[in-house]
Amino acid sequence: MKSVAREAGRGALHYIGLFAVLNLLFFLSMSLVFAIPNAQVRTNMERSMALLDWEGGYPRVFSPTDYSVMDSVMDTDMIAKALAAQEDSERGAFYAGMNLSGYTRYWHGYQVMLRPALRFFQYHEIRMLMGTALLLLLTALLCLVGRRAGAKVALALTLSLCMTNFFIVPMSMQFSNMHFVMVLACLAALRAASRGWSAHRMSLLFFAVGACAAFLDLLTTPLITLGMPLLLLLWLRAGLPDSSLGGELAFVAGRSAAWGCGYSATFAFKWVLGTLVTGKDIVADALYQVGFRINGSGDSVFTIPEVLHKNLRGILSPRLEAFLPLIGGLILLALIAALLLDRPARARFARALPMLLVAAFPYAWYAVLRNHSGIHYWFTFRAQMITVMALACAVLFVVDAGACARAVAARLPWRKSR
Predict the structure, then answer these.
(1) pLDDT surpassing 60 at residue 355
(2) Rounded mean pLDDT of 375-385?
(3) What is the Cα–Cα distance from 157 to 216, expressed in whole angstroms?
């Protein structure tokens, strides 16, 4: 018992130490970038604002639907916040890095990259650099997934990106942040798996990913930084001979809890630290916003079915939505056929169940944060990247088309007569 308690205490110290180091880095990095004089970012900031004003607040790209909208309003606000208010500058870099008048409940960690970038580049140049970097990282991820997990998983990842209209993501800072973290988290998870990391070290990784998501995000699609690397690990683990349903469910619960603790604790620390540094009651404002984002008020109250429908429409166009019963029926038929014709598929199906559990994560998020997910469905729908990836991986893992075809051929009358 003493050894167990000692190990638990040591593990808790690891989390506390990691939390302290990460949040110290977050605080110092925000203070450091706001030590850059306003004069050095003003010119490119003003030119960037002019470009965004010319584009309009919510330009649509590739199609006229709401799900092809770029959030240029928020990109404008992000760039505007790069120019610290005169009062903030006079109070010092610590104050300026914590205040960022408006949305003070967020860390605004993207400023660590944006503010130095505005020293040298305008928004359209930052957009090109950001898009190039994201596409290069994604290419590296697809190559690594293909090498470590196989072409099937690389195909599932590609499908999940396509069905959530990834094509406009690199054109928007607001949308790109969580995709950067997601890709880097996936690369880190695959590398950790190849090195045989223990469950504890893997949990620390997910804790750090959750903390980084809270630091950089403005509540867009943070869940993809949990779901996507988790699915890659589940695929790799499902192929192990000692894999069990109970063990995999425990793995999902443990890593999800670690990510959630890192995400929520980092947000809470910003509220407390911001209140201490600025003297404003950020904690009270944040708690009010949490309640509002969950329940809403007035015209901003949504039922769970309404929120789910709004977000589902993002991955199912009106034409595709009409074929949803057919698509679902074909997937169900393929699974049933595999289970009936291919005996090993029954064992594989049990191992795929944790993937199907992860597929439901976005809908649990929508149900809890239904106000936010109902208002901002036009970008929160991208969390369903997890769902598409999970369903594709589950089907590809369970269904062995070759084995099913051989089983059918063996049952044909002309085969028996031979």
Answers:
(1) yes
(2) 93
(3) 23
Among candidate residues 196, 200, 253, the one with its CA nearest the CA of residue 226: 253
Bridge partners, 395 (sequence order): none
State pLDDT tens for residues 96-105.
Answer: 889 887 788 8
Residue 297, pLDDT above cutoff 70:
no
Whole-prediction pTM:
0.91
Half-sphere exposure of residue 245: CA atoms within 13 angstroms, side-chain side: 9
Between CA 250 and CA 245 the distance in angstroms is 9
Is residue 175 within 8 Å of residue 169, measured between CB atoms?
Answer: yes
Per DSSP, what are the bridge partners of residue 69? 60
Nearest in space to 99 (alpha carbons), one of 111, 116, 84, 117: 84
Please report, as a single letter, which amino acid is at residue 121: F
Contacts of residue 268, defined as CB under 8 A and 6 or more positions apart, other chains included, come to: none
Largest alpha-carbon pair distance within the chain? 92
Q: How far is 60 from 321, CA to CA, in rounded Å?
A: 21
Chain-centre distance of CA 316, in angstroms?
Answer: 20
Q: Is the CA virtual torsion 83, 85, 86, 90 positive or negative? A: negative
Beta bridge partners of 60: 69
Contact status, residue 175 vs residue 168, Cβ threshold 8 Å = yes
Segment 211-259, tens digit of pLDDT? 999 999 999 999 999 999 999 999 999 888 877 888 899 999 999 999 9
From the list 319, 186, 210, the residue with the least C-alpha distance to 269 is: 210
Q: Which of 212, 186, 39 is CA-nearest to residue 113?
A: 212
Tokens standing for residue 83:
């120019």
Direct distance between the N- and C-terminal alpha carbons of the chain, in angstroms, rounded to an integer: 66
Nearest to 369 by CA among 383, 354, 390, 355: 383
Q: What's the token pair of residue 383?
A: 């969390």
Between 246 and 154, name the one with better pLDDT: 154
